[in-house]
Design a protein that fits this description.
The protein is built from 3 helices and 22 strands. The protein is mostly beta strands.
């Protein structure tokens, strides 16, 4: 079943249990040969990968995008035209026929997004806080998992994290809450996002105002007095990379070097 669903990690675990119990069969040996080949082809041999999300990465080969563990073990074989970021037990995928799905970690389709949302879908974002952004007919809206459109007619909409997301209308960026209301009345020149489209990490956000990047908390309050020429979002660590006078350095969540 796992091989049929191209869930090679689980299939490998089953064969290891089979070996551990000292069981033998011709069928198991056949599967072992298949797994050895797939391991050679897929394990740690990707042309590109996405950033880690929930201990998974999107993995790319000449066959398309698939899903792998953060350590490089293939979970779902590369075959998709596009793949999103695994979170809350699902990842978005787009097949070669431009059909979008929510897929679980076992490679099973949970929902057909294209059948559930009317219009031309070009992007589906990370599902979090019971909402996900999707670009439909060139406009971004937020939807629930039952595909009810909640709010939005944006030129861009990022994924929610810590209850906050970044959206763009024309040249203006804003921060919104999960009900679509504005975090602050401020409009910004830019909001720093990570690869997943998330702006708020470690309860901190970098926005560009008056040609300078400043640090905010999730309520839109300014943190520290420093301004920066450029910045990158916080990752899982305690520091974020920022640029000052053409040089990169690191600041903590209080804005201190």
């Amino acid at each position: 079943v796992f091989l049929k669903n191209e869930n090679y990690s689980e299939a490998f675990d089953i064969l290891e249990q089979f070996d551990g119990r000292r069981l033998q069969s011709e069928e198991a040996e056949t599967y072992r040969e298949i797994m050895d080949y797939l391991y050679y082809e897929d394990y740690c041999s990707f042309d590109d990968v996405t950033t880690v999300s929930s201990d998974c990465v999107g993995s790319y080969t000449k066959n398309g995008w698939g899903l792998a563990t953060a350590k490089g073990a293939s979970i779902v074989a590369p075959k998709f035209k596009q793949i999103g970021f695994y979170a809350n037990d699902v990842v978005t995928v787009c097949d070669t026929e431009n059909v979008w799905y929510f897929m679980n970690r076992e490679g099973e389709y949970q929902y057909n997004i294209s059948d559930s949302i009317s219009g031309a879908i070009t992007e589906v974002g990370v599902y979090n806080h019971e909402l996900f952004p999707a670009c439909v007919d060139e406009k971004y809206r937020y939807y629930t998992m039952d595909f009810t459109p909640c709010f939005g007619e944006y030129d861009y909409a990022g994924a929610f994290n810590a209850g906050v997301a970044a959206v763009k209308d024309g040249e203006a960026w804003r921060l919104i809450n999960t009900d679509g209301s504005l975090v602050t009345e401020e409009a910004y020149q830019d909001v720093i996002l990570d690869e997943r489209g998330i702006c708020c990490l470690n309860n901190r956000i970098f926005v560009k105002k008056d040609n300078t990047y400043i640090m905010l908390d999730s309520d839109g309050n300014r943190i520290g007095t420093e301004g920066f020429e450029n910045a990158k979002a916080f990752s899982s660590g305690e520091y974020a990379a920022v640029m000052d006078e053409g040089l990169w350095g690191y600041v903590d969540s209080l804005g201190d070097w």
